[in-house]
Write the structure tokens for this entry.
Amino acid sequence: MNFPGRSSPSEAGGEWGQSGRLVGGGVRPWLVWLVGAVLLGLMAASCLLWLPGVDGVRLLIRATARTSLVFFLLAYTAQAAVLTWPGAWSSWQRRYRRQWGWLLVTSHGLHSAAIISLAMMAPVLFATLSPPAQRIGPGLAYVFIALMGLTSFDRTAAWLGKVWWARLHTWGMHYIWLSFLVANGKRVAAHPEYAMPTGLLIAAFLWRQWCRRSRVIRAEPASAGPA
């Protein structure tokens, strides 16, 4: 993942990744996405087979919320990881950051399909769990995820242009982060286990800001001092 304003569409295809070409003899990028997508599909099938009906759909909603967070954090911290701990793992994480973004799109696509299924199968329960007034914020996050996914291709990124590409991916990434933070943070009081993803999100944000500040400090010219 690139820090806002630090790269161009041709370099990274958005906050979510580098070019889709094979780099440094690693696994082909499309294969990373394909394996992840197959695993997501198997997870979805397992949830629905294990608990048929509404319970299975609700389990799938919770499961895809967690996988989406994992893929988001992999993309969100990729550049910070390389700057902090240069090495094989961090390079691998950054190399496939576009694929983490596309896996987020895939995971959240399953998440939205499960939510729609719940609304159709149990409309009263759905209205209780998600009142209309609380759907606007998460809905905007879905829009950003879709737009960032669509502009993670070199051609669509070039069509959008560097300025609007940078704005979309800067605003979008931070809004998605905020959406995850609110979704997890508001549940901590009733369900303490949500403290872990909330803490990870806060730590990821602070880590990125620390790395960005460190880069700015290193880039500043040294003072000549008194003559």
Residues 9-214 form one domain. Confidence is low (pLDDT under 50) at residues 1-14, 16-25, 219-227.
